[in-house]
Amino acid sequence: MKQSGEPEREQQKSMERKGYVYIAGAGPGDPGLITVRAERALREADVILYDDLVSLELVDQFNALKIYTGKRKASHHFEQEEINREIVRHAVDGKTVVRLKGGDPFIFGRGGEEIEALRNYGIDYEIIPGITAAHGAGSYSEIPLTMRRISSSVAFCTGHPVSSIQVPDTDTIVYYMVASSVHDVLDAVAAKGRPGMTRVAVVQNATRYNQKVLTGTLDEFRQREKAVYSPALLIIGDSIGQFIRHNWHTRKKKVLMTGGESSRYSGRDCIMVHFPCRRISGSDLDAVHKSLEALDSYSVLLLPNKFSVKYFFRFLYDSGRDVRSLAHMKICTGGQAAAEELKENGLVADHDLEPDPASGYAKHLRELSISGERILLPGSNHVDDSLVGELRELQNEVTPVGVYAHEVRHDDLVDLDFIDEIYFATPVCVRNFRTLFESIPERIVVSTADRRTEQEYRRLFRA
To answer: If exposure means fewest CB atoms within 10 Å of the residue's CB, which of 51, 95, 163, 446 is most exposed?
Structure first.
């Protein structure tokens, strides 16, 4: 039975547990347009609630619990009231929450409604602005929203509801959310007296690799078929067409990266489209626990990629152990990304093995005299048979253990019509890609990281 005064103590305890909420803009689509402040908040977050227009490439970089709150096709989605409750629920539980919204939270982002909910519960928060879609679309299509002697004013409007579309008297107008109402908007603009020769542009997938820009006059667009795909913005004004032909975004080569990084590409020369062909999920828990119990029996820990490092150490810490459990082992990493991830856990690799394009790891293993060892090899559920074979040829006893799983993703497929080159980082990337695409158009250049990946590509796509 509760004593007198307990409700007050429980309320005080609840108040002490309250976390902190960032309402942040993710920018218009290109994950590189996230602000430094928003990225810092995402690294701090325990929970991220993100919208449909937020890039998965961006969200996947962070370790927080991720909750999708958007709507795609017929999939379940949250109504705004549910999103508000979800933000509050995690904050009251003492979590650091990032509500990540496409574009800017205060430009058609409903950030104001979420602030009201947070204030009602006395939850501390801050707003992190983002690059709104109009700014992104203008910059990536080279349409100046303002320009001396041509446009000295600009207005942001929405294409909904169609019964009350606003047509402000400004030089340039940008309409958001027009995929289903573009012709209603154009009719409203014409009815307000804009000349039929007024310049019009529709920007689809603004700032993304598959951005598409359609231009014409007001009269021409009103006569076209109603085929505009979301997300799309409508820009109206005479600054359209000043620089739009062969703009900087169109000229750059689009390279699809299926994993890893490659120094052969420069950000000045091309646009990287990161498509890992997989999601990282659970693991073989029984095997992981057995390997941790037997850590003393292994002499070498070989971590072939950053995911193997990340998930191995997560299980290590969850088991109540720390890096002291590895003091007797020689630790090797496969490449710079794995070595950097290892440093995040306070350790420097004894050896960082960069695979040779022709011979894989074999040459380095021989040079380091890694022979006759008991090697623990954390990795994915898809065992790298070539690496295991190289290790065993040197008389090593090897124990692969799946600390994470590759799941091929069928959502958010890349549109190959916009891709100029594909880079395969590993044979697993090739195999996963093959489950998603039956063929690769002949015009697309294909490059691979090493000999084994090249062989797998030829076996699956050129046989």
So the answer is: 163
Q: What backbone torsions phi and psi does residue 107 show, to the nearest 5 degrees?
A: -120, 95
Architecture of domain 252-278+408-461: 3-Layer(aba) Sandwich (3.40)
Q: Nearest to residue 97, comparing CAs of 42, 59, 15, 58?
A: 42
3-state secondary structure of 9: helix
Mean pLDDT of 443-453: 92
As a whole number, mean pLDDT of residues 453-457 equals 93
The encoded tokens of residue 288 equal: 């992981």
User: What is the strand order of the sheet 279-281 is part of?
Assistant: 279-281, 397-407, 374-380, 300-303, 330-333, 351-352
User: How many degrees, rounded to 5, is the angle at CA 44 between CA 23 and CA 105?
Assistant: 15
Cα 372 off chain centre by: 42
Backbone angles phi, psi at 267, to 5 degrees: -60, -20
Rounded CA separation 251/256 (Å)? 16
Rounded to whole angstroms, the Cα distance separating 23 from 104 reads 9
Q: Which two tokens stand for residue 280?
A: 């990282």
CATH architecture of structural domain 280-407? 3-Layer(aba) Sandwich (3.40)
pLDDT per position as a tens digit, 350-377: 998 876 655 567 778 888 888 999 999 9
d(Cα 21, Cα 126) in Å, to the nearest integer? 7
What strands, in cross-sheet order, belong to the sheet with 212-217?
154-158, 172-176, 232-236, 199-204, 212-217
Domain 135-244 matches domain 280-407 at the CATH topology level: no
Q: Write out the catalytic residue numbers.
A: 51, 71
CA–CA separation, 377 and 334 (whole Å):
11
Q: Which CATH architecture has domain 135-244?
A: 2-Layer Sandwich (3.30)
Q: Are 23 and 128 in contact (CB under 8 A)?
A: yes
- List CB contacts of 134: < 8 A, sequence separation 6 or more: 107, 145, 154, 156, 174, 176, 233, 235
CA 199, CA 221: separation in Å to the nearest integer?
10
